[in-house]
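Sequence dictates fold. Below is an illustrative record:

_____
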Amino acid sequence: MSDKDQLIELLTKVNKEQEQTIKELRAMIANLQETLNELQRKLFGTSSEKTGKDPSEKGPEDEVQSGEETQVTVKEHIRTKKPKSLRKDLYEALPVKDVYCDIPEGERGCPDCDAEMEHLGYKYVREELRITPAKVERVHYYQETLVCPVCKSELDTTIIGGKTPEPLLPHSPASPSMVAMVMYEKSGIHLPFYRQEQDYRQKGVPIGRETLANWYNRCALEYLKPVWDALYRIFLKRDVIHADETPGQVLHEPGREATQRSYFWIYLTGTDGKPPIILYDYQPGRKSEYLLKFLKGYAGYVHCDGYAAYGKLEDVILCCCLAHCRRKFYEAVPSNRRKSLKLLDIRSEQEIPEPVSDIAGREDLTPAEKGVLFCNRLFFKERLYRDLPPEERKARRDETEPAIWEEFWQWLETLDPAGGSKLEKAVNYARNHKETLMNYLLDGRCEISNNAAERRAKSYAMSRKAFLFHNTPEGAQASAIVLSLIETAKSNHLNAFQYLYTLLLFMPGLKDSPEGIKHLLPWSDFIQERCKGQMDTETYTPENPGKLPI
C-alpha cells in the first residue's frame, strides 16, 4: 500500500471518529438542553400535566341552572354537563328550623283606622344556613344501686348496680365520638395533631397533641385493626386489584435513620362490580418482599406501574399503566409544545378529544407528541366503553383497540432516539412493557391505567404535606389503618366520621367476634342504614348504642 493510500485510510478513519464524536456531542447537548428545560419548567412553570382553562371558555358554573343534561361546545371537545341540583335537593338531609316573624303587640293596629287587625297567615320569605360551632361536653356517669330491704332486715345485704358502658380507654376521658373526630380530622381532612390541639383550646378543652396521638394510635391498633384484617382477607379473594406505593417518613424507627424513606403501599379492588376495598399498608421500605408478603396467596389481575418489584409476583397477570407510558412521552415533548396536548383520564369530567387517526404520518409532530397521541387514541376509546358491562366492554375493545396497538408498535420500531434522551427512555419503557401494557385487553373488568391507585396515593400525600412525618412505626401503622377505613367508607358512599364513630361504639365488645365484625363492614345493611346520613352522635350513644343484628 502506497503512502498516499495509507494517508487516505488514516484520514478516513479520523473523519469517522470525528463524525461519531460530533454525533455524541450533539446528543449530549440535546440531553443537557432537555434537562435544563425540564428544570426550568419545574422551577418556574406548572407541575400539572393538564393545560389551564381557556379564559374564553365558560365552565358549568357559568350556565343557567337547569334540571336537564345539556351539551356545551367549547374548544376542541364537547363537554356533557351534569344536571344541577336544586337548593332543596342539596340541603335535603339537613334539619329544618322554622322562624316566624310576628308583629309586636303594640304595632298590630290598622294604620288607616287604628282597628285591631286579625291574623291572616304567614308568607315564606327566604332560606339561610346557620351553623352551631362544635361543643365539647363533660359526661358524668352515675350508677344506680339497689339494696334489698328484706335481706337487710335479716342482717344480710344484697346490692345490685346498674350497667354502665365500658370505657373506650381505661382511666381516660376519651369517648367514641371524641376519638372518631380526632381520627377524621387527622386522616380525613388532613388536620395534624398540633392544629387540633389549638382548635380544642379555642373550645375550652386543653388537650395536648401527645394525648390526641395516644388516643388515635391505641384505638386504631386495638379496635380498628380487626376490621382492617377482615377487609384484607376479603381483598385477597378478589380477581382484579390495583397497587401503588408512596413515600413517607418515620422519625423513630429501630435500626433506621430519621431521614430514611419509608413507604405506604396502596392496594384497592378494581371495577369488578363488588363493594370497593381500599387498604394502606405501612412498610419501612420499597423492597419486593413487602409486596410479596401482602399479596401472598393472591391470584388474579394486578394493575401497577413499571416498578420491577411487581414482576416478582407469581400466579398473577400484570396490567401495566398506560398513563405512566404516556407521561414519559409527554415529558419528552419540548415545553413550548406541551400546551396543545391534553392528558385526561377516562373518568375525567372533561371529555377526551378524539385524536387524529393518521398519527405516524404527521410531519408537523415530534416523535414524542406522536407517542402521546397514540396513547390518547386508546384513552378516547376506553372512555366510550367505560360504563359497559365487562363482557360487552371486552368485545368492543377487541374490535377497535388491537389495530391501534399494532400501529403503535410498528411506528415505535422506526424510531432511533438519541442515547440518554427522554424520548429514548419513553421508547424503552414502552418496549420493555409491551405485553403487560396490553394485558388489560384480556378481561373487561381490567382498566387501561392505574390512576385509581394514584388517586388514593394523593389522599395520604395531602395529610403528609400537613404533618410532614410520623413519630413511630406504630403511629404510621395506625394512620394506615384509619386511612384505609376512611377511604373504603367514602368509596361505599358512607359518612366517614359516622362510620368511625359506629365502629368505636361497638368494637370494644366485638374484637374477637368474626360474626359481629361481619355486620360492621362498610357494605353491611346495618352500616349502610346507620352511616349514610350526616354526622349524628345523639341518636346513638355509648349508653344506648343500638343493637347489632346478631
